[in-house]
Amino acid sequence: MKTSKTYNILYIFTLFVCYFVLTASNCRRNNRQCPDGSHNTIYFKNNSNVSVNWRRSETPNDTVWVLNGSTYPNVEDGLILSGATYTRTPGLARCWEYYFSGSYFEYHYFYSHDTVLALGWKQINGTNRGLLKIVKVDLDYLNNNNFTVNYP
Question: Which terminus of the chain is more solvent-facing, meaning fewer CB atoms within 10 Å of its CB: N or C?
Answer without folding.
Answer: N
